Amino acid sequence: MRIASFLPSATEILFAIGAGPQVAAVTFECDFPAEARTRPHVVFSHLPYGLAPAEIDAIVSAEGAQGRSLYFVDLPALTALGPDLIILQDLCRVCAIDSPTLARDMAHLPSQPRVISLNAHSLCQVLAEIELLGDVTGHAAEAHALTASLRARIDAVANTQPPTSKPRVLCLEWLDPPFQGGHWIPEMVALASGIPLLATPGEKSRRITWDEILASAPDIIVVMPCGYHLAETIAQFRALALPPEWNNLPAVRNGRVYAVDGTAYFSRPGPRLVTGLEIMNAIVRGDDFSQLPPHSVAKLS
Q: For residue 17, which of 143, 232, 238, 263 is within the disulfide window of CB 3.0 to 4.6 Å?
């Protein structure tokens, strides 16, 4: 089976369940594991490199209003590879190419590939999609072993003694303009014994205002802009023009504002979300970060 993965999380899943040798094509963003970077790229972005967050948001909004995708497929290259299976998503037009954009083109591929669209909004659904990909790629045993280990780690966090007082946690998935973290992020906060602010488990991320942020009075703020690693996140935060009232927030006064590697551990619905849950657990409880992966979290204030 020759597989074309049109989203980074699916690429991570495929390699994690032992289907890496079957992956014949990936996107320009598929950077984990390192071996994935050696596969041909067939999906690219229209977005110019080096844009500021506000510029990206403006383009995303304009393209979305016109019903256009931010991504495109190199169809000649994909045709030459002759995939038997294509994996894409319907979760977010900003994160990866979506199913409606591709439906017409995929139908004309000579290899007549099977197309699977992923759409997980919760940790449970992410685990189910790992098992689905195991079933369709001939790696069911490996996939179920992986999800069993991930469920055990999720349970370990959920069963930890909760703190005396649950902190109110605001997760920022974008900074300019601010967006709250949706989908599985509120669930992760709740599993870590925090109270998620301005978000509902399973619901999409949405734009919020600075007035909403100030009114929510978070005890903890976690900065996790989608598509950025830790160093980039810290740089974005330092360059952000914050409202004067920012310094009055409980999280800021108490030194509980954190940056995380959103790309690796929070944005992509794959196995590393569970590491993200463990990072969130350490943040909520004020634990030592020494046992977490390097360059995964840092205190901003």
A: 143
